[in-house]
Amino acid sequence: MKIAFVTGILASPLVVLAQLNALAKDAGLLYFGTAVSPGDSNDAPYYRLENDIKNFGQYTPDNAQKWDALQPSRGSFSYGAADAIVNRALSNKMLMRCHTLVWYSQLPGWVSSGSWTKDTMTAVMQTHISNVMGHFKGKCYAWDVINEALEDDGSYRNNPFLKALGDSYFALSFKFAAAADATTKLYYNDYNLEYFPVKADGAVRIAKLVQAAGVPIHGVGLQAHMTVGRTPSRANLTWTLNKYTALGLDVAYTELDVRIKPLPSNSSSLQAQAKEYEAIVGSCLDVPRCVGITVWGFGDSHSWIPSTFPGAGDSNLYDKNSKPKPAFSSVSALLASASGKRPPWNTAASTTLLTTTKPAVATPTA
């Protein structure tokens, strides 16, 4: 692979320009990807970067495959926006991480406000999962089957599925997903697994419940929504990833961003952000069954952070003008330095050495 190098940019001695996915694959990952939205096409510089497979080898729809988008009224499915993203990914020869089937949020009112029995909720879940996965059958490398089912204390989050079915909804969701498309990887996905050991253990509990039911589950997605100054160390992140590989599962970072607070950002906070991005990506490289990394958008102008966490932002690898930031430089340099040190993904080791001593736990995110 031919790589372009530029020196003297972004306070880094070396910047590898616009080849994150190519570098990640050379470093033994399957992909470096990004979340995408239908509105991305309105920003030409951003859209060009997004559509170059050297930059990104995988897409995740940010909202287009959620329940309220796909089945806004019972039995009425709408796939236009999601199809456009999936077809663009396939045209670009990119992988799709499809997201998400069973989640407490962004449910249409007919689901969230319905009065459900065990039997009626089972039927509703099966219909939704079967229809959606059947529509995209063979097009998704992976599906986030269940999203954010845990509170930060490790307890189950209250939602219509839990209320009607108890913890049996975990195995049922994966059972219906496996029946709908046996070719895709099936994931549990959540945030703050990196911060709260008790929540990380909750995800272990969910995975074991599914496995005990004899139902396929292939991986755990760690969203990795981080805050500068509070990101766990590389060693601690690696230790958390290995909780899931010990169960025979793959892992992936699925929604990565590292927000800065307070704003405006400055050279010091941007350099700190760069180091924390490097720690996160490095931890994935340290775990043979870490498949890849997906950033939750790559430019600050497309970030969800400012509207959700007032006073925080500048969380991505590129700035508001789609220009690379120090974090881009640090991640690129790390991936370049790891080239050839790990087998390509399809020959990666299926077992992982476990850390025997737990590292110190970082302060949780806010």
Automatic annotation (TrEMBL):
Keywords: Carbohydrate metabolism, Glycosidase, Hydrolase, Polysaccharide degradation, Secreted, Signal, Xylan degradation. One of its GO terms (molecular function) is endo-1,4-beta-xylanase activity. The keyword Electron transport does not apply. Its EC number is 3.2.1.8. SUPFAM superfamilies: (Trans)glycosidases (SSF51445). SMART domains: Glyco_10. It catalyses: Endohydrolysis of (1->4)-beta-D-xylosidic linkages in xylans. It is found in: Secreted. GO terms for cellular component: extracellular region. This is Beta-xylanase. Residues 1-18 form the signal peptide. PROSITE patterns: GH10_2. Pathway: Glycan degradation; xylan degradation. InterPro entries: GH, GH10, GH10_dom. Residues 24-334 form the GH10 domain. Its main location: secreted. Belongs to the glycosyl hydrolase 10 (cellulase F) family. One of its GO terms (biological process) is xylan catabolic process.
